[in-house]
Design brief:
Blueprint lengths: L19 H15 L11 H12 L4 E2 L3 H7 L6 H9 L4 E2 H5 L15 E5 L9 H6 L7 E5 L5 H4 L1 H11 L18
Parallel strand pairs: 3-4
Antiparallel strand pairs: 1-2
Length: 185
């Protein structure tokens, strides 16, 4: 479900009196309408501020990570300033998503191409958990291993983009089109 918040419906809408409380109230109403099951809130840009306020007003069971554990396991290849900046943006993960089983009863029969990107320095789980543990759940999936930690989209964006570009079948690496992607090489 992706609700449109007040002030974002159409270009001519009057936005003069719309504030955070209106956005949060609309998001809370959407949550109420969704029913009692836990939901994962995802917000982009201003939506991040909205979901933070929603979580503050309607907290769910969650799993916050202490700095030392997160730094040593999730983003250990980044410099201190980048790791601090990323940690400051974290919100706790809803606990049920960590423990609920992932059910994929039809996946094997769908004959979809799949590639699992595995990060060599990812220390979030014991060795073998991601590959072959999780990658093996995707029938016939190719595996691409690249240098990077769990937060490679922040610590190795160029390598990750190049790997995704290659997997998608494009001839040129993505870094050729994005100068900033070469900074992590």
């Amino acid at each position: 479900m992706a609700p449109t918040l007040p002030g974002h419906h159409h270009p001519g809408e009057d936005r003069a009196e719309i504030g955070h409380d209106d956005l949060v109230a609309a998001a809370l109403a959407t949550l109420e309408a969704a029913g009692p099951d836990p939901l994962v809130l995802v917000g982009h840009s201003l939506g991040g501020a909205v979901i933070s306020q929603v979580a503050d007003r309607r907290p769910d069971r969650s799993l916050p990570l202490p700095w030392e554990l997160w730094r040593g396991s999730f983003m250990q290849t980044a410099d201190e300033a980048a790791a601090q900046a990323a940690f400051g943006r974290l919100v706790p993960v809803p606990s049920r998503t960590t423990f609920d089983p992932v059910r994929l009863p039809r996946l094997a029969g769908l004959d979809l191409p799949a590639t699992f990107v595995c990060f060599r320095q990812d220390q979030t789980m014991p060795q073998g958990y991601w590959h072959p543990g999780m990658s093996g759940r995707l029938p016939g999936a190719a595996v691409v291993e690249i240098d990077g930690d769990h937060e490679a989209m922040l610590t190795a964006p160029g390598r990750l983009a190049d790997a995704l570009h290659q997997v998608a079948g494009f001839a040129e690496p993505a870094a050729a089109h994005r100068p900033e992607a070469t900074a992590d090489a």
